[in-house]
Design a protein that fits this description.
With 277 residues, the chain is α/β, with parallel strands linked by helices. It contains nine helices and ten strands. The protein has an eight-stranded parallel beta barrel, surrounded by four helices. A two-stranded antiparallel sheet has the order 8-9. β4, α4 and β5 form a beta-alpha-beta unit. The longest helix is centred in the first third of the chain and has 18 residues. The radius of gyration is 18 Å and the shape is globular. 46% of the residues are buried. The model has no long low-confidence stretch (mean pLDDT 96).
């Protein structure tokens, strides 16, 4: 089973997102569970979540992914910002725990001059506060493009966080194709080599989800500019090789390309058609 989906707006409610996913030939999706650029969260409706769970079971959905807000920075110099990150993640996990088998993905953050080691320690400390044993949701660290003081542009940085966090057995990784290409990993020209390196440093068992995005920038640019599939420097054929790679079978593949729901539906249907050839 190939699980393909896209990032949808949670303003319509979880059940309606499930219906929207079905309408675009998707069997998974990603969403924010609060304002992506603010701290405000909308309370979830238990009945709405229950309807989504039923829909997912009925239609054989793969795991869905909740995405943390962009303002979350657990390795900020500012203690108040680090505290806000911990509070937001704890609140979000209370909601996502009601969707068993789902994932919660976040950008590790930027150390803003403190150094990678300090940043990794701060991220691990926040995770140990929030990812408590009673949590049912696996939390995912996202691979990043490595722009500025951003943590996660190298696989070794994610490995360091996993090693430092006592809750590491409840953590995983989400690989973003645009980010890793911009970070210098040649997934278009040497996908097997990149996955072998990931396995050696982090372990493929930790890889739980994949963001499938083309890139507007060349390999190693450290820019993080997503492009529509086939309209960037990675290319559609390379993205198809990612989705079809046997080492990634069963993972949810999620579009974050710069288009609307109709555009995402067209991309999903085109990818599915190509995979059947």
């Amino acid at each position: 089973m190939t699980y393909l989906g896209a990032h949808l707006s949670s303003s319509r409610g979880f059940y309606k997102m499930g219906l929207e996913a079905l309408s675009m030939d998707a069997n998974t999706f990603q969403c924010f569970v609060r304002n992506p650029r603010g701290a405000r969260a909308k309370a979830a409706d238990p009945a709405d979540l229950a309807k989504l769970r039923e829909l997912m079971t009925e239609h054989g959905f793969g795991p869905i992914v909740a995405h943390a807000p962009y303002i979350m920075n657990p390795c900020s110099k500012d203690e108040g910002i680090r505290e806000l990150a911990a509070r937001m993640m704890a609140e979000d996990l209370e909601l996502v725990d009601q969707l068993p088998g789902s994932y919660y993905n976040f950008h590790p953050g930027s150390h803003v001059g403190q150094g990678v080691e300090t940043g990794c320690r701060q991220i691990a400390a926040m995770l140990d506060r929030v990812v408590t044993p009673e949590r049912r949701t696996t939390v995912l660290l996202e691979t990043m493009a490595g722009k500025g003081s951003e943590i996660g542009g190298r696989f070794e940085e994610l490995r360091r966080i996993l090693d430092l966090a006592a809750c590491g057995d409840r953590l995983g990784v989400c690989l973003d194709t645009c980010h890793v290409s911009d970070g210098g990993y040649d997934i278009a020209g040497d996908l097997d080599g990149v996955l072998e390196e990931f396995d050696r440093i982090i372990g493929l068992g930790r890889l739980k989800a994949v963001h499938i995005n083309d890139s507007l920038n060349p390999l190693g640019s450290h820019k993080d500019r997503h492009a529509l599939i086939g309209q960037g420097t990675i290319g559609e054929e390379a993205i198809l090789r990612v989705i079809a790679h046997p080492a990634l079978a069963g993972l949810p593949f999620l579009l974050e390309t710069p288009t609307d729901d109709a555009g995402h539906g067209e991309e999903i249907r085109r990818l599915r058609s190509a995979l059947r050839r």
